[in-house]
Each structure stands twice: as structure tokens, then as C-alpha cells.
Amino acid sequence: MYIEAIVLEGFKSYSNRVYVGPLHPQFNAVTGLNGTGKSNILDSICFVLGITNHALVRATKLDDLVYKQGQAGVTKATVTLKFRNDPHQQNNPLPFPYREMPEITITRQIVIGGRDRYLLNSRNAQLKEVRDFFHCCQMNINSPHFMIQQGKITKVINMKPKEVLGLIEEVSGTRMYELKRGNAVKLMQKKEQKLQEISVVLREEIEPTIERLRKEKQEYFNFVSMKEEMQRFQRFDVAYRFYSAKQLLQQGTSDFDELTQKKAEIEAQIAECDRETAAAQKQLEDVDTEREKLDGPLQRVRQKKEEVEKLLAKRHSEEKTARRDLKLFSDALEDLKKEEQKLAKKLAEKRASRLSETSHAEAAEEEVKRVKEALENAEKKLEGLSTGGAEAGGGASLREKLKQAKTKAAQLEAEEEDLKTELKHVDEELRQVRAKLNKSGESAAQMTTQRDAAAARVAALEKQLAAEAVDEEKLASLREEMKLCRREIDAAKHEAQESQHELNSWSKIAVRLPRGMHPHKLHGQVFELVELKNDYLDFAKALQLLVGGKLEYVVVEDKDASKAIFKENNFASSRRRVTLLPIQDCQVGKICDTATLFQNRRLVGLSQDDPRVLRCLDVIDFDANRHEKVALYTFGGSLICATAEMAEKITYQPNKRQAFPTVTVEGDVFQTGGVMAGGGSGHVKETLLLWKNFKRCSQMSQELEERARQIDFYLQPMEQTVQRRTQVTRELRLAQNELHNIEQLMATSSAGSEMARAQQLEERRRDCTKRKEEVEAEKGKVLAEVQQLEADVYELEHNRDKLEASLKKEVKVLRQRLKSLEASVNTLQKEIGSFRQELMTLEKDLQSVQEDIEKRTQGLADLQKAIEEKSKLVAEQKAKVEDVRKEIELCLSEAAQSDKKLGELTGKLKKLQKNKDHLLLTLKKHQHLMNDREKNIGAARQEMEALQRANDWLHAEERKFNQPGSAYDFRQLRPETARQRLQALQVEVQRLQKSVNSAAATLLEKTEKDLLALVERKTQVENDKAKIEAVISELDIKKRQSLETTWLQVNENFTGIFEQLLPNAQAKLAQVNPRDLMDGLEMRIAFNKRWKESLAELSGGQRSLLALSLILALLKVKPAPVYILDEVDAALDLSHTQNIGSMIKTQFPTSQFIIVSLKEGMFSHADVLFRTRLIDGVSNVERHALAERPQRRDGTSASDDAAGSARKKFRKHARGEDSGEDGPN
């Protein structure tokens, strides 16, 4: 198949219809001046092939391909390609039915602002159909290797190995497989996504729907069952109500008569209670008068107690300060003692080090002395040898030494024999003793076992005693600290109890909560809800005088709580006035705000920040969230002034809005109503100060108890350790006594004597054996010395010269050794001198510390004496406090007797009132019961009548009510349970009636069938997907095999084409990675069989030929029907251009080439030449047949003479023409 003609109309510079053809089936050339539209012919072919990259046809959008973009009246561009096909061609790649058509036309048309359409044999076709048609012919326009455009040569030469491999893939046909495979994978991914969506729908919609339908089905069945059960329980409930009403009617009539009789009895008891209450009230008033007489002496004694306790606190503080100084002095003394120990230890270490250094020095001096003696002996020997007299020089001494050594060897041998004899006697005696021991046997073994067990017990207890170590100093410190802590806790608790007792005696009110009332309803008394700030403790008396009894008010939540508490505690009949303050209902009066405070300060001539005029609110703390209203009510409308003049001026100022009640620190009170008070505030009860002291002491006792628990945490284990250590010590003493007794028993018994003798013999045997081994070792050394001396004597007598040389060498070595030792001795003597200096310094420091310790010890004794004196003062003051306390206790005991009588009378009154209240309540209850009985009788009668009217079956079934075994057995099924079950069933039936789905069973069956079918189809799709993935894997392997085959074929073509284009040069495609083709391919070139390392060494023309050879080699492997070349010879000279033309005719005889070229060397080989011209801005085409050859694709051609003649004629014609007009493409 080849292109027979191209028809252009309205495409780029071809405004009119232009017929380009007929084209030769082999070599066609297009030439013309620049801008005449020659490349537009190639662009038109790409346009029809379905190109999507507009840049390849030099356009930005499709409208640019229309002649002058539609501005010259031409609004559409049409290009038609006419193909000539051979129906009889073997292996025709065209799809059916096109392979049987001799002529095929493909048209593409675009309209400005309109649509883009294709015509295949005058029939509308889709772009995919057109592309598939060209893909079958190896003409993929999106990877157009059959088309070599301007710049393609440069792109090819600059391709990376992977891109070169891509060219091989395109030629082998695997590129189309990759495209189809990619599309298939994308489609599978989309289908997989769809499957996932289906799974999500199954999981989140269908399965929940089925579950819901199952639930609705079960709910419907439950609804029917519940409805039937509800009707049965309704009849049961009606029967019970009728039966109960009848019983109530009978029982109510009887109860009403009894209640009437009891009412009369209770009224008589109430009258008697009133008489007893009047008598007890009179006695209470008499005792209360006596009690008030005892308050004066008690107050005076308490004031005396305060003064004595203040002095005691001062004495305590002085003693505590002295003890703290003693502790600091003691700690300093302890540090000095530790320093003394450190210095003493360091001095001992230095002295020990000095002894070590001295011993080293002495050893070095001994070594010097020994070396000197050895040197003298050697020099004497050498002197004797040099004088010529062997005996005089040392021979005699050697012989004497030899004699002495032999004598010593004989002595050692005699001693060894004696030791052997003694060992023999010891062994014999030991055998006899052991025989005796074997006879006594069991008793000896038992005694030995007892002794060993006792010894083991003693060792174990000693080890246990060592493990149970305890720090005695720390233990004593903790014990003392715990003792002091307990003492302080008792003092704090005692002080808190005294404060509490005083508060109870005049301010504290005991309040009992009614049964069932929440504790938060009762807040407490006012003085318990506020606290005096630490900076204003002196204002306690002033506040007490100003607010008065308000501090004792009992604060409650609301009016209801106030009424209930007042009634529960019977405050109405209390001898003491009690006021309840409900927070929610109390009305706060005029409040002194900050601005008013500043104005009052200015009124008395003070600055705004002067603290000599303060609000009472400023000197107290309170819970702003809960008790702010209480604080405002009590303290919000009053001021504290430094002087009476300021207070009077503020209270009695003309501006009544700024006037407030005031008080001075001394206790002078000024009221806005004109009342003034003061001067007699000596015995004012400072409630706020007492309460603060109580809270402080209580908190202190809690903190001290927590500290005591912490101390006990560390002290308790140590105490337990001490106990265990005492126990272990006692057991160890007993065990040691037991071991001593056993050992004495063994010593006095015959078996024990024999065992002791056996031990002595064994020790003697070990000593003899040890001495025998020492004698044997010493004997061996002496014998070796004898041999050496004999050898030396022999050497002296027979090798005199050699011995002289040896002695000279020995003298030299000894002199060097002596010199080195003397230097070491000098160094050690210097070091000993520095040690002496350090020792002297340490001794002086130690003496200084010891003197300081003596001084501080004396100071410590003086402090101890001062503490003893202060302790005596504290003891005396404590005695005074104790005396005052006894006076208070005496007064309190007298007051307690009166309080006891008051308590008894008050209790009696409370009891009488409680009894009366109880009787009144009982009377009221009886009246209510009588009323209830009347109502119940009437209600029962009405209910029976109503039930009989509403339920006709009651009369027939009444005889079965409460009968055992019947449906109305009220004992077997409790009516309350039945009623609860009925109510639950009614609620459930009413709920289900609104939501129950009666069609749930049918819908469930249908939905389950649909779900099963959908799951089966989903499974089938997943199986198909697995098969497709397996096929893709198999095809990937075949693709690789195809690539390797194609590469070898392309490489062969590449080598041949390049050698034809550039003689004496070789080229090849080599693998980047010899082990893996998929890593890419690279082009290699050689000149005269010498391979270049890089293509950078090539000229531009050589690089172009190399790239063109590769492209043509690719085209030759799998030839396309048409090849398009656009000015590929631009960088080549004439000879190379001619080679390309010749190569195309020889290498591609069966393919059609359409080549755009400006060089005669190229198009001179063409069979048909098309020349473009631009006339009036419109391109035209002229056809010139350069050779009259038949239109065949078998590679044959007409005679060369005819071709040459036609080419010469064309060249003359071309030279005689003028230059054409330039215009845009």
C-alpha cells in the first residue's frame, strides 16, 4: 500500500483545491523555495493521520491550519489521502475489509469554530478507527518513526539509552502492545475501583439493608406476640383491680371504726404533756440565772491564762533559739571532727606511703651494696687471672664453694631420710587412732555432726547479724524528731481544743439537719465563712464591736431550709437567741464601693491609697463564689478608721449617701443614727481571732501529723531492724554457748580425745610432708649448684682465656648496673624529702583543727548550760500555766455542773416537746388515715362499678379470682409484676406499631436473592481479572524476546546502512548493561575498526549520518508503506546527500519515500519531483517525472539514460526561472 495522491483544500497556504499526484510508489521528492509550502504537504499527511501534537505541524490550535485562520473567506480545511492497495499482497497488514479494496481514501476536515471529522472511504469514522487503521500499517502518528521531520536527526543523536530502546520497541511492535496493555491495565484499575465501589455498596448499603430487614421481620413477629400477651395481661390487671377494690371496701369499713377510738386516746396524752412542759420550763429559768453568775470569774481567769501563755511562748521561743544555736554549733563541731578524721587519715596514708618509699629506697641501697660486692668479687677474679695464678685468682674459692655445696647436699639428704622415718611413724600412729575412732564410731560421728551443725548455725547467725545493720545515729535522730513532733502535735491540739471550747461557750451554735436535707443547704455561721487577713489581726476587736451578733448568724441556702432547720432544732424555745440568714433571700443594704471609699478618704484629708481608712470588706477573706452576699450583708456598709476624729467626720458628714457606720482600732463605734459607743471594750470576745486561731492550730496539727507519718515511714523499718537485730543477737549468743559446750564435751570424752589426737597427727603429717617437699626442692637446687661449680672449676682450669673475657664482660655490666642503681637511689632520696615536707604541713593542719575543736567543745558546753537555764525558766512558766489551767478547770467544773443541769432540763423540755410533736403528728396522721379510709371506700365502690360497666366478662369470671391454678391466681403471679409487664408491653406495642414493617419478610427474601446473584457476578469478574493478569505476564516475557530479536536485526541493518553512507566507518547498537537489555541501548562508532568512546568527537555531518542510519535501520526492520523525510540532508554536503539518495533506492526498493529537500544531490535520485511555488500568497504544486518507470513496487526501474535526461531537463528549467515569492507556511 502506498499514497497515490494528496488533495489539499483550505489547508495552510493551499487556499484552493490542489491535487498533488500521482505519487511514485518508491521515491518522491518535494522541493521549492523557502516559504512556498513544501513542508505543508508533509503537515497535511500528518493532519490526516490524526496527529494531536500541534507543535509538530507548526500550529498552536486546529484553527491555525485553516488558510489565514478563516480571515480570507476560507472557513474550513480539508485534506484527502488516496492510497493504492494490492489485494493480492501476502501478509497484508490492513484489517478486513480494507485489505481487499484496491483504493482507499481517508479525509479529515476541520471547520473554524466547528467540529473535526474523519471520512474513511467517504464514510464518517471515529478518530480511534482511523488511528487503528494506520497502526496496522506501522504508521502511528503519535510515535512517528516513519516520519523524519526537521530537527528529528538532532533529537535522535541526543537520545538517551532508554529512548533508543523505545525506538526498538516501536519497531518490534511492542509499543502498540504497551499502549494496549496500558489501556487494559487502566481499564482493569477502573473496573477494580468499580468492584471496590460495589463491595462498599454491598458492605455499607445492601448488607445493612438485609440486616435491617431481618431485624424488622423479627420486630414484626415480636409485635404480634407482644400484642397477644398484652391482651392477656390486661384481663389479669382488670380482674386484680376489681378483686382489690372489693377487698379494700370490706377492710376500709373495719379500719375506720378503730381509728376513731384511737384518736380520742391521743388527745388525752397531749393534754398531760402540756402540764409537764410548764413545770420543766420554770426549773430551767431558775438554773439559767445561777449559771450567769459564774461567767465573771471564769472570764478573769481566762484573761490571766492568756498573759501567762504569752510569756510561756516567749520563753519557748528563747529556748528554741538557743537550741537552734546549739544545733548549729554542734553541726560545726561535727564538721571539724570529720575534717580532723580526714586529715588524720591523709596523714596516716602519707606516712604509710613514706614507709613504702623508704622501704624502696632501702631495697635500692641493698641492691647497690650487693652489686658492689659482686663487682669487687668479679674484679678480684679478673685480677687473679691477669696475674697468672689460677688458684690465687679464684680457683681456691671455687673449690671451697664446691666443697661447701657437697656438704650441704649431704645434710639435706640426711634430713630427708629423717622426715621419711617420722612420716612413717606418724602414719602408723594415725592408723591406730583411726581404728579406735572406728570402734567408737557412731558416738564420734554424732558429736562431729553436732559440732558442725552448731558451727554452721553460728556462722549463719553472724552473717544475718551483719546483714541487719542499722545507722544508730540516724535512728536516734529520728526518734528524737518523732518525740518533738508528737509533743508539738499535743500542744497544737490542746490549743485548738481550748479555742473551740471558748467558741462553744459564747458563739458556736449546734445545728442539726432535718432528715433528708442535703448538707450543702447549711453553710455555717458567719464567723466560720469569713477569715481575718493576717495583716489586720489587730482589727478583730473593732469588727466584733461593729457587726456585733451578726457574726453568730446561721447561714442557710433559702427560706425553706431556714424553716425546716429552725423547726428541727426547736430554736423557738431555746434560751439563746438564734438568727438564721437565708443567702438567696437576704437583702444587702448600702455598700461602700471603691469610689465612695476614695471620697471619704479625701474628706478626712487622706490620699486615695492611705490605709488609715479601710472598708471592713478589705480586711477579711471569703469565698467570692458562694459567700460574697453574706460578706456584703455583714461588712459591706461599714468602715474602719485610724482615729475617732476621722470616724466621726465620715459617719456624721452632711452627704448621707457617703456616710457609713465606722469603728476605730481601739473600739470606738459611730453609727449613722447618732449612736456612739466606746471606752469599755476590754472584755470583748474576739470571735474572728479565736476562729482563726482554731483553724491555724487544727491545720498545724494536721501538718505535724503528716510530718509524723513521714518520720514513721523511715523510723518503722529501722525499729523493725533493731528488733530483728536484738533477736538475732540473742539467738547468736545461745548458738555460741551451744557450740562451746559441744567442743568441751568432745575434749573431755574418750572419743573426743582420740579425735583431737587424730587432728594433731594429721597436722603433724601435713607439716612433715610440706617440709619434705621443701627439702627435696632445696636438695635439687644444691645438686644443681654442685654441678655448676664443678663445671666452673673445669672451665677455670681448661678455658682460662674464655673465662677472662667473660669476667671482663661481667665487670662492665655490673658497673653499668651500679651507676643506674645509684641514680635511682638519689631520686628516691629527693622524693623522701618532699614527703617529709608534706607530712609536716599535714601535722600542722591537724594540730590547728584539734585546737579549734577544743575551743568549740568549750563553747558547746556553755551553750548547753544556757539552754538548761532557759529550760528551767520554761518549766517554771509551764507550772504557772498549769496552775492557771487548774483554776480554769475548777471554774469550768462549777460551770459544767450548771451546764449539766441546764442540759438535763433542756433535754427534758426537748423530749417533752418531741413527745408532744410526736403525739400531734400521730393525731394528724390518724385524722389523715380516717379521711383516707373514707376516700378509699368511696373510690373502691366507684371503681368496682366502673369496671363492671366496662367489662361484661367480670361477673362470669369473678368466681375464679385468686383461685389456685386459675388464670387469675394472684399469689402465683404478683399483680405488681403483671402491671409492670403490661405497661412495658403497652409502651413496646405502641412503639412497634409506628415502625413495624409487615412486608419485611417478603422484602428480605427478594433482597437476599439479589445479593447472591450480585456476589456471584462479582466473583466471576475477579476470576476474569486474574486470568487477564496471567496473560499479561506471559506477553511481557514474549515482548522481551521480541525486543532482543529486533535489536539484533536493527543492529545488522544499522551497520550496513552506515557503512554505505560513510565508507571506512563502522557503527553498532550496544547494550548499556550487558546483562540486561532493558537498561537501554547506545550508538557506538568506529573509524578503521577503532571505536570511539563518545559521539562528541564526531562532526555535525557524521552525527547526522549516524542518526539517519539508525532511523533507516529501524524502518527497514518492519517497513511502513510510506516514509516521510523533511530536509534530513540540511547538515550534509553533496557527496553524503548523493549517498543517501543512492542508499534509499538500494535499501528500500519496496517502500514509498516522500522527501522534502533543497539539495540537488538528494532529489536527483527521485522518480518524481514536485516543485512548490507561491503565487499571490497561495501555494501551487508542479509535478516533474524524472524517470519514466512503471508504477511497480518490485524494486526495478527504467533505463538510467532516460532518468538522467529528465533530471538535466529539470535542472535547466529550474535555472531559467525567477525566484518565487516568500510567504508564510
From TrEMBL:
Biased segments, Gly residues type: 386-396
Residue ranges occupied by any SMC hinge domain in the UniProt entry: 520-651
Extent of Basic and acidic residues compositional bias: 1185-1195
Coiled coil, from the record: 718-950, 982-1024
InterPro entries with a match to the protein in the record: P-loop_NTPase, RecF/RecN/SMC_N, SMC, Smc2_ABC, SMC_hinge, SMC_hinge_sf
Stored PANTHER family: STRUCTURAL MAINTENANCE OF CHROMOSOMES PROTEIN 3
Residue ranges, compositional bias (Low complexity): 1196-1205
Organism: Toxoplasma gondii (strain ATCC 50861 / VEG)
Entry keywords, A to Z: ATP-binding, Cell cycle, Cell division, Coiled coil, DNA condensation, Mitosis, Nucleotide-binding, Nucleus
Gene Ontology BP annotations: cell division; chromosome condensation
Ranges where the record places region Disordered: 349-369, 382-402, 1185-1225
Compartment(s): Nucleus
Pfam families associated with the record: SMC_hinge, SMC_N
A single Gene Ontology CC term: nucleus
One Gene Ontology molecular-function label: ATP binding
Protein name: Structural maintenance of chromosomes protein
Similarity comment text for this entry: Belongs to the SMC family. SMC2 subfamily.
